[in-house]
Amino acid sequence: MSENQNPVQASANPRQAEYPIDPIYLERWSPRSYQGDKPVTDADLFGVLEAARWAPSANNGQPWRFIVARTPEDRAVFHGFINPSNLVWCQHAPVLLLLLSKTTFEANGHPNRKHAFDAGTAWGYLALEAARKGLSSHAMGGFDAEKAREALGISDDYEPQVVISLGYRGAIEQLPEGLQLREVPSPRKPLAETVIEGHFPNR
Amino acid sequence: MSENQNPVQASANPRQAEYPIDPIYLERWSPRSYQGDKPVTDADLFGVLEAARWAPSANNGQPWRFIVARTPEDRAVFHGFINPSNLVWCQHAPVLLLLLSKTTFEANGHPNRKHAFDAGTAWGYLALEAARKGLSSHAMGGFDAEKAREALGISDDYEPQVVISLGYRGAIEQLPEGLQLREVPSPRKPLAETVIEGHFPNR
After folding, report:
1. Domain that holds residue B93
2. pTM, full prediction
3. To the nearest whole angstrom, how far is the Cα of B173 from the nearest Cα of chain A?
């Protein structure tokens, strides 16, 4: 099972599973505090990207692409298109990734209706492996996709999906007060609200 | 790490990771053969849905919904909207799931631009936990979404994403010959083709 490298203590995690699952799904959440002075090792960075690599996708099209920013110069470019409300905390993340999806199949140029869905699957794989390696990861939709396109030279057949911050978790005290209150694993709806038997809706 | 319940033998799996990761990502693939006479236990079915429950999502909106078909009657309804090329094998799966995404936020009714992406993340979580529990899972885009809408009474604010077959892996011999050849874990592009440093494209 999980290697228990995640810095979240079980006692601090209010999440409860309704059915038995690997603990990694409960242990993995989206912190905002980072140790800004601790670079992500190559083994950890490429390890989480390796996990994403093996995600399933429509016709095995693998439409995900990751643009990595891990130098001060590359991160500064990313900071230019991330919303201020996210930048306030993710500016301290040692690695930022832009996850793009290719909107057409490489094999035949046809539109890939599942490009966003498949990119989301790859993000799920990445997020779980990050937790397993003791890394925090946090996906953000709050960025200016058009600015990102321009700043990074992204062509029309790719769609920016999320910016992902990656790094080792830092002290909660470095966050603004409002965000300190939100620095806990988030809850979920009960299964009964998202799982439906037979037809829709029957509750 | 993984509990090694997956029926795929390591020797039969041609996948090789470039960087060390939990073996579950390599062990998990999308078989087409099922033991049609072996129902999925409640613990396994709700266990994989439980894993999906904990996926991260934009504003924790949790836009995924799963419609479960596990009786002959409910499966017959699903068979009515699945493409023949998929039905030829997935008709034997003891469980079929339709994964929907809610296209608006419940909190304020605003459009959720990340509904498909987030549903993909939930599918990634589900797929990995299925493998951990010794279940095969296979997502299909090949179905008639409009027929599914009509047959299951799906309202306009939900979008059908994929049909997922779930069950215990069966003998390869029960598949049509053409599909027997495809009953192996699929390869992936090298990381160098999907990971880019700094800006896009630089290879």
Report:
1. 28-174
2. 0.94
3. 23
